[in-house]
Design brief:
The structure is a homodimer. By secondary structure, chain A is of the alpha/beta class. Chain A has two domains: 269 residues, Zn peptidases (Aminopeptidase, 3-Layer(aba) Sandwich); 149 residues, Glucose Oxidase, domain 1 (3-Layer(bba) Sandwich), CATH 3.50.30. Chain A is built from 13 helices and 14 strands. In chain A, strands 1, 2, 3, 4, 5, 6, 7, 8, 9, 10 and 11 form an eleven-stranded mixed sheet that branches. A three-stranded mixed sheet of chain A has the order 13-12-14, with helices on one face. In chain A, helix 2 runs antiparallel to helix 13. The radius of gyration of chain A is 23 Å and the shape is elongated. The N terminus of chain A is likely disordered. The interface between A and B is medium-sized, with 35 and 35 residues. Chains A, B: Its main location: endoplasmic reticulum. Chains A, B: This is Carboxypeptidase Q. Chains A, B: It is found in: Endoplasmic reticulum; Golgi apparatus; Lysosome; Secreted. Chains A, B: Homodimer. The monomeric form is inactive while the homodimer is active.
Chain lengths: 466, 466
């Protein structure tokens, strides 16, 4: 009641501003209970365990990906979601069959590497030319690497918020095209990762239009060290043999489960993760955890005494890894319903403790945003207005006007495992995962219970790139 | 001078005891200088870097093993050792060609494993029967595992002194024979290791006489976790395909370098490590470090102002991994020279800081042993008389009467990497390695400078097993 009066007073002092959004006190109280029951629950971990154990690795478009879709549909039903459905997502299919590399000559020895997603197959032998970073390779004159293998030996930096992945990821996405421009016949990089284990990091790469793709792969950190030491001793020839490549189209699905809202069921708060994973690990931190924790949050909201006004829509997105296909498909399909989407948040940064909350809330929703932050504070979460951006699969819809929230996970060790064989369930701390479930449940519950919106408004945009 | 008088007095009070061994004060002073110069030197690290980089993995009997022998011979010469020679060592040759495994059926997914050394090749498909430990498998009735695959899911414990490797290693050495007795068609085990990375631990296994060997392999810890979770859900069929096996005989070499003693050059203090490694990593902690740090210790002693009385013999032993072949060959060849061997110590437990010193010194050498311990104390090394035993390649000769010393390395993380692809140079802390060099140099220098012996005395023994 106080909240409503305060809102009226506030709106009264602004000119032509939308009505201020506030969250009813009863919802705040219910969210507190939800938070405590989520912290005491292992449901998020059990769902993540189920996906990573029963399905295992699930490369987009693979047979295992199809099993993952069936798993997600069945799991939503088992958890008692009110509505469960699939939305098809079609994309080019890439396959990894085998990969091998070795140093030739007097220091001959194997190298541990993995093909980058999107790499063509090929057997290449050539002298290594080492570059300290992407800029150095981009500065190599055209044709200067003819018959040679480019190697970028850039070390990605560790950061709680994953800031090192910007420059690290660019070495993966842009390095191959730079290598081709310089005339190289293959491309190697030190993995975009922060560990020193013998597990290379894969990930999608792209080739600029008009270039003929070359075999492109990432070395495990100790193998990059080794190659750096060998090249410091003199010329080094390496043989790389990748068997992988694009093979037609595949259709997978965004799998969606909904907890029906009490009074405005046609309006939704979206939370989710992505269902596909790279093939090397079992996709526990990327992104079994995101799927598991948001499914659990939805389920816990569904069984709370006081249902929120709006529906909670949990989405297990298809094929995030190779180009946000699931997120783009969702944005296209629901283009006319931006306003019915109250707000969205995707978890796709592991299962470390959430330490910060922010959102795109405009002025008229900032009081409600603060209410959410206050309800999250007991979980050790700081309010950091204005920081960050939407999760990857949310971003195409956010570009069309969806309001978004960010629940920032501590990713200090995320890039030790990301896209490697080592992305397995043992890397998840069940207590940290429960804290994530609690945070997502509180956020989604309160956003769905608010009187007023968070600023979702259709924008005119060019369609997202394919 | 004081030392000599004290020795005479002490001997005078004992009945029929050997003359007490003491170390001259001048040698103690020189050892102090040696310790400080070793701590300031990166020579041990540079030698280890050279071996692991230039040769890389060096499975006993392989082409790389032969390169390692050439490397060691050349390195001894480059370091200025007074005498360098090879002693041949012949053994059966085992090869790894490929290895694969996968869960079949509704949860189909690959498993990451590695063949145990000595395993035969074979393609086997069968239902997994999980056992908590070796005793449980040994209790399985004969024939009860017919057509099935035995899986021991024992977790080795972490310990500074590696105590967990006793029970962990037995799962590897005895598990396959127990599986065969119960009728199994293949044997899987959780790796004998303390990490949770996707890097399985290999290591030699044996099959008891009269049993027909079966394919035997170790799963990486996350894969063992996965298999345990899957078997908890119901019957699990797995396909294992190993291509590996014994292939005739090979001859490698113990490579020996000697720093000539000043007054008793025919008497020697032996230090060393083993030159071979498993094939998965580059053998940095097992045992490039042992070779590197003892070569460096020898070199530093060789360039000290005051040469010790006795010679320092540094041995890079052949084929430790598959049955102490180098150590046994050395013991056989030098059988008549036990007494000329003052004492021996092998480093084969990584490159963690040395925290304890002990030896087999009998009563008449305990004062000298204490002098060595006092000279080691500034390195943070405790004197622990009576603890431990000789290093692996020293042990066959110790069984024939060689006095031995133990410089105990902190092995808390040794079994995170031991026998895995992850045994690479980056796992070595250069400062810890320098402390190891200092400790070995001080120990060897003082033992070689002593007035009197450490108790080496030929014993009648049955020849070491082949």
């Amino acid at each position: 009641m106080w909240a409503a009066i305060a809102a009226v007073l506030f709106v009264g002092s602004a000119v032509a501003a939308p009505r201020e959004t506030r969250i009813p006190e009863a919802a705040i109280a219910a969210a507190g209970e939800l938070r405590e029951s989520a912290l005491a629950s292992d449901l998020g971990y059990r769902i993540t365990e189920s996906l990573t154990t029963e399905v295992g690795p699930r490369l987009a478009g693979s047979e295992a990906d199809a099993r993952a879709v069936k798993w997600a549909e069945a799991k939503f039903r088992e958890l008692g979601f009110d509505k469960v459905w699939l939305e098809p997502v079609t994309f080019p299919k890439w396959e990894r069959r085998s990969e091998q590399a070795e140093v030739l000559g007097e220091h001959r020895q194997p190298l541990n590497l993995t093909a980058l997603g999107g790499s063509p197959a090929g057997k290449v032998e050539g002298e290594i030319v080492r570059f300290a970073d992407l800029a150095a390779l981009e500065a190599a004159p055209a044709g200067s690497l003819k018959g040679k293998i480019a190697f970028i030996d850039y070390r990605m930096e560790r950061a709680k918020d994953g800031a090192g992945y910007g420059p690290g990821g660019r070495v993966r996405s842009r390095g191959p095209s730079a290598a081709i421009r310089a005339g190289a016949s293959a491309y190697l990089m030190r993995s975009a990762g922060t560990d020193s284990h013998r597990n290379p990091h894969t990930g999608i790469t792209r080739f600029d239009d008009g270039l003929t793709p070359i075999p492109s792969a990432a070395l495990a950190a100790p193998d990059a060290d080794q190659l750096a030491r060998l090249t410091a001793r003199g010329p080094v020839r390496v043989r790389v043999a990748l068997d992988c490549g694009w093979d037609g189209e595949a259709t997978s699905h965004n799998v969606i489960g909904e907890i029906r809202g009490k009074s405005k069921p046609e309006e939704v708060v979206v939370i989710g993760g992505h269902l596909d994973s790279w093939d090397l690990g079992t996709g526990a931190i990327d992104d079994g955890a995101g799927v598991g924790l948001t499914m659990a949050a939805g389920k816990l909201i569904g069984q709370s005494k006081l249902r929120p006004a709006r529906s909670i829509r949990v989405i297990a997105f298809a094929n995030e890894e190779q180009g946000l296909y699931g997120g783009k498909a969702y944005a296209l399909k629901h283009d006319a319903q931006v306003k019915q989407h109250q707000i969205g948040a995707e978890s796709d940064f592991g299962a470390g403790r959430i330490y910060a909350y922010s959102s795109s809330a405009p002025a008229h929703a900032q009081a409600a945003d603060k209410q959410i932050a206050e309800a999250l504070a007991p979980l050790g979460i700081e309010h950091t207005p204005g920081k960050g951006g939407p999760g990857p699969d949310i971003s195409p819809f956010a570009a069309r006007g969806l309001a978004w929230a960010r629940l920032a996970q501590d990713g200090s060790d995320y890039f030790d495992y990301h896209h490697t064989p080592d992305d397995t369930l043992d890397k998840i701390d069940p207590k940290a995962l429960a804290q994530n479930v609690a945070a997502y449940a509180v956020f989604a519950y309160l956003a769905a219970s608010a009187d007023g919106d968070f600023g979702s408004e259709a924008k005119q945009v060019t369609p997202p790139e394919e």
